[in-house]
Amino acid sequence: MKATLELRQAVRPWIIKANARVAIGVSGGADSLALAAAIALEARAASVEVIAVVVDHGLQENSELVADQAMQQLHNVGVTQVIIKRVQVEISDGVEASARRARYQAFEEVMAQFSPEFFFLAHTLNDQAETVLLGLARGSGSKSLAGMQEVNGMYVRPLLAIDRATTEAVCAEQGLTPWQDPHNDDPSYTRVRVRKEILPLMERLLGPGVTEALGRTAEILREDVAALEEYAREFIAAHRGESDGYLIHDLLKLPKAVRIRVLREAIFEAGAPAGSLSAAHLAPVEALVTDWHGQGVVSLPGGVKVERISGRLSVLNPLGGTAPR
Fold it and tell me: How many CA atoms lie within 13 A of 226 on its CB side?
């Protein structure tokens, strides 16, 4: 039971912190079943209630049977409260992103109903390494390369330092039969190609330990990102209430990495939709500060407009006012 013990040690601090109830998202795959087994064992000892949420996306034939099988596997490890949420996935920006959005909406509904202290997700070290490689391939910034956070609001990912082989070993130790998602073998998905082709190739050519190294890289970058964002928050707090925008002189004093974060936050406060800003959106805004030669208004998602006026950078909301600060 070595693998089970490793997972129990990973979840134990969170179960100890929980007073009454926790929840967990379960797909029926090895990672989430292993996490559920470890949580069930720890929660039983601590008298903490466990609610498992199985989301049926309805994207595959007989998906309801997969959800029912996951529920039975959960019952086998002692999780008696299982909620199956059947969702309608509206595909607008790819199957993966659309399914993820529907899944998290289902999670939010359960949290609103049952108020758990934590909602556990079963992302592993392998998932983290894949996320970092995908970020590198897309030319993403440090926040994306920092990968997934262990704690993000109510969501907790206690397995980010544990590999997939360990979760599979837990399932074997506990007599569980995980579901094999056919999407995980479909090379039309970029993440599958990273998992099945790129990472194994890197391990073969560069030697073992690449997955662990990518996980460590994400952890280091998360610390760097946290420091930069704290610096940006301090600047924003110090200038809150200046309704006519930030002085260009003050913005120029900031390191670019901090200034970009300040500008992004101001744009979001003015009404840009969350997640809508790319580096291409921010480049002309940055140029208003550092490469000024009389250029005009920069138009951004959500109707937000940014303009340099009399030595200040003004971020305007769709109604024409400056961003609230």
Answer: 11
Per-residue pLDDT of the chain (325 residues; tens, 9 = 90+): 899 999 999 999 999 999 899 999 999 999 999 999 999 999 999 999 999 999 988 777 788 898 999 999 999 999 999 999 988 877 777 777 888 888 999 999 999 999 999 999 999 999 999 999 998 887 777 888 888 999 999 999 999 999 999 999 999 999 999 988 887 888 888 889 999 999 999 999 998 899 999 999 999 999 999 999 999 999 999 988 766 789 999 999 999 999 999 999 999 988 888 778 888 899 999 999 999 999 989 999 888 999 999 999 999 876 544 444 4
Q: Is 224 domain-assigned?
A: no
Contacts of 142 (CB under 8 A, 6+ apart): 221, 224, 225, 228, 257
Let me know whether 24 and 113 are in one domain.
yes
Is 110 in the same domain as 255? Answer: no
Asked if 163 and 247 sit in the same domain, the reply is no
Domain harbouring 290, CATH code: 3.30.465.60
How far CA 40 is from CA of 10, 113, 224, 307, in Å, comes to 13, 21, 35, 55
Task: Report how far residue 205's alpha carbon sits from residue 40's, in angstroms, rounded to the nearest whole number.
Answer: 40
Overall number of domains in the chain:
2
Question: Which domain covers residue 48, as residue numbers?
Answer: 2-123+149-182
Distance in angstroms (rounded) separating the CA atoms of residues 126 and 195: 8
